[in-house]
Design goal:
Blueprint lengths: L16 E3 L2 E2 H14 L24 E2 L3 H4 L1 E2 L1 E2 L3 E6 L2 E6 L4 E6 L7 H13 L3 E11 L7 E11 L2 E12 L2 E10 L3 H14 L1 E2 L1
Antiparallel strand pairs: 1-2, 3-5, 4-13, 6-7, 7-8, 8-12, 9-10, 10-11, 11-12
Length: 202
């Protein structure tokens, strides 16, 4: 984050061995690090920093996603402020509740396996991960297959509740995640259901 804007730098490479014991990833890593060291963030003089106007639907929900970057359309209520929009879209309410959505990068991984991996990875960061429901049927825009998951966890002394949808459209997978402190979870749930109804997967 710089000057109230969010930026994402991503270095992606094959992890196969290039020569000897060195992988392609390791071979180019120093170049990627040099790129990071050269970054400069600034706002040119005279630049208009007025917030952009987002397309609105009939309910007043704002189109936060960039279809060419994300591969989906995600409409959010104005009470959630856009954090960033690229391949991942993130928006946050003033009470800290957050919505994110992205395409799944683990091609060829089944929904069940993705969910099991997700639980394992999350358990390494948080405590008391408790699953409320998993692999449950739900509605999610124009998805062909979709399953919802609800769970809670503790992090930094606070309890959070999550509503997550894993969806498939064509050959692509998508992950939608709503995270809120346990006390704020129900307050936004009606809006979250509207958001998931409005999703358009490409």
């Amino acid at each position: 984050k710089a000057n109230s804007r969010y930026y994402i730098f991503t270095y992606t490479s094959m992890d196969e061995i290039r020569s000897g014991e060195e992988s392609y990833y390791a071979f180019h890593l120093s170049e990627a690090q040099k790129c990071i060291e050269e970054f400069q963030f600034f706002i040119p003089k005279g630049e208009d920093v007025t917030p952009p106007e987002y397309e609105k639907d009939s309910d007043g929900y704002l189109l936060y996603s960039d279809e060419s970057l994300a591969g989906f359309s995600l409409y959010m209520p104005e009470s959630f402020t856009l954090d960033y929009a690229s391949a991942i879209v993130s928006a946050t309410h003033e009470d800290g509740s957050n919505v994110t959505m992205t395409k799944v990068t683990a091609a060829g991984v089944s929904v069940d396996k993705y969910w099991e991996r997700r639980k394992t990875e999350l358990s390494a960061i948080v405590s008391n991960l408790t699953v409320i429901s998993e692999n449950a049927e739900c509605e999610f825009g124009n998805a062909q297959n979709m399953f919802k998951y609800e769970y809670t966890f503790n992090y930094n002394g606070k309890t959070y509740r999550v509503y997550q949808v894993l969806a498939v459209y064509g050959y692509n997978g998508y992950v939608f995640t709503y995270t809120a402190k346990a006390g704020n979870y129900e307050a936004h749930l009606e809006q979250i259901m509207k958001i998931t109804d409005k999703v358009v997967l490409k």
